[in-house]
Design goal:
About 55% of the residues lie in helices and about 0% in strands. The protein is mainly alpha-helical and about 130 residues long.
Length: about 130
């Protein structure tokens, strides 16, 4: 997810919350205070991150011949187009975990391993315990 997209999502989320509570920007109330009043612990971007990591874990545990696994991992036999490569779905996963594709899939396959702490970044010390 691009930084621009994250900013737009956060802006839209807060705009909706302020409209629901009938709070104007002129009232000078911080976004954190509004989230606290609405009992929202996570932003929309954090929820998207959690769900993407969860789906990645599910697809890694699937059999290799499943179509969804082939599509999500981006394996293709065709030639790529000219120019800058587009941002892939898995690029977010690799950025959030700090791992390469092979290690991320290896860690995600273990249900009881460090993958269970999806919402927090995976610490290198925890990954070392699992031989990654």
């Amino acid at each position: 997810m691009k930084k621009e997209d994250r900013l737009k999502l956060n802006i839209c989320e807060m705009k909706c919350y302020r409209k629901m509570m009938k709070i104007s920007y002129k009232d000078m109330i911080k976004n954190e205070a509004i989230r606290k009043d609405l009992k929202r612990t996570k932003t929309v971007v954090e929820k998207i991150k959690d769900r993407k990591l969860s789906i990645f874990g599910h697809t890694c545990r699937m059999r290799d011949e499943r179509l969804i696994k082939t599509v999500m991992m981006g394996r293709s036999d065709s030639m790529r187009k000219r120019g800058r490569p587009k941002r892939r779905w898995i690029d977010d996963i690799l950025e959030w975990t700090g791992l390469d594709t092979q290690n991320a899939t290896h860690v995600a396959k273990e249900r009881k391993g460090p993958w269970t702490s999806i919402s927090t970044p995976l610490a290198p010390t925890v990954l070392m315990d699992y031989g990654v």
